[in-house]
Amino acid sequence: xxxxxxxxxxAAEHTALISRGGETTYGAMRDQVGGLRGGLAALGVGExxxxxxxxxxxxxxxxxxxxxxxxxxxxVPLNPTSPAPELERELAAVGASAVIVGPTAIAAWRNIDxxxxxxxxxxxxxxxxxxxxxxxxxxxxxxxxxxxxxxxxHLAVLIFTSGTAGSPRAxxxxxxxxxxxxxxxxxTESATTSGDxxxxxLPMFHIFGLNVVLGVSLAVGATVVLVQRFDPxxxxxTIRERHVTVVPGAPPMWVAFSTFEDAPNDSFASVRVAxxxxxxxxxxxxxxLESRFGIKLAEGYGLTEASPTVTSSSGISIRVGSVGKxxxxxxxxxxxxxxxxxxxGDAGEIWVKGPNVFKGYLDDPETTARVLTGxxxxxxxxxxxxxxxGYLYLIDRAKDLIIVxxxxxxxxxxxxxxxxxxxxxxxxxxxxxHPQSGEAVKAFVVPKPGVQLDEDDLIEHCTNELAxxxxxxxxxxxxxxxxxxxxxxxxxxxx
Length: 495
Prior knowledge:
Blueprint: E1 15-19, E2 22-25, H1 26-43, E3 50-54, H2 59-70, E4 74-77, H3 84-94, E5 98-101, H4 106-110, E6 122-125, E7 134-135, H5 136-139, E8 155-161, E9 169-174, H6 175-186, E10 197-200, H7 207-220, E11 223-226, H8 232-241, E12 246-249, H9 251-258, E13 273-276, H10 283-293, E14 298-302, E15 309-312, E16 325-326, E17 331-335, E18 348-353, E19 360-361, H11 365-371, E20 378-386, E21 392-396, E22 402-404, E23 407-409, H12 411-419, E24 424-434, E25 438-447, H13 455-463, E26 474-477
Parallel strand pairs: 1-11, 3-4, 3-5, 5-6, 6-7, 10-11, 12-13, 13-14, 25-26
Antiparallel strand pairs: 1-2, 8-9, 9-19, 14-15, 15-16, 17-18, 18-20, 20-21, 22-23, 24-25
């Protein structure tokens, strides 16, 4: 098998992608993927190599992703807007041997210290202005090579997550993991079909966008409208003009739609399926969307380590506040502190098992052992409860985790960066409610004696090291941080 084969068998003339105003058919995309596969192979990229993808939501990402998988190499999707130090850490952590740089990431790559990523042998860029790089368009015209047949357990993707295990780690997802999740989603009621047009604004470096939006859509032969930045006004224009029928999105997108006063009431007339996940959706926003636009927004639940979907409300009676029912092919337990199943209606930690569950974290067997049991159960760290009809409700989540616009932020990562500032003595970071992003990062900083710190300067310090969504939006300066008798920071006492 090979996940790259999901684009095979669809009508050559059917539109696969709409990107930056241009359309790419399935036939043309297969040609481009095959050519790039051959071009990468000629450079020496092959089975098992780790290839970083610094590409926004556009045609280049899709073609590069499928070409890398088709060689039996491992795709490493990264946030193309991340600052250079973060990209350097991630590329070094996975030992990337090649990097493909999209048009919007050219400037970011120029800031990369090549000495910090010594394993990178090849840089393929969408523009020829980067010295010493191969040109992506030229490689796409290379002589094709066949897709490599791999075992289902063969590693396909490394994707950074902090979902269940703390600071960001590269989760290992196999061809079999990703394909299992795609098939599980396709088997649901109201699943995407070949006649659908899917709105693709969820970033492809996030597992929701990568496998639920892109993977599922290509597997069934649907059309994906790739969007690099979200704006509610232009989004509604695209949905209307392209006759979009399926709209997936993180809660902040749907909240923005629900409060967009200039939106016509028939804005979503063409849409037959609307769903959300990655973070808790405000119930009042769900009700506003239905009363104003007639949209029945379906919530689901998943995590990177499950490739990602575990539950869905699509195609079943929606219960506001619930993330739906467990997908066929996925097993879920709700367990207590003794790891015994709770009584019906009682809350406990959600455990997940199935062919979609990941292989562990790259080069981190100790953390892997903490989240994967010996018989394959994934300890999610999320707390939930089911009702008598099997609907799952999330009542808490992984300890300390902050979710900003659907993206995981682990406090320790932000604390480490702030602690690196010469004027900071101590720091504690928490998540606080935010009307647009769901949560925002808030930091409490103890300055070193005699040092006068500036909030804006500290925030700028963070933006030089971290993706913008991970940076604090508010910093408070305090004399001391709350700690227990053993000296451990009491985050829940920070407000």
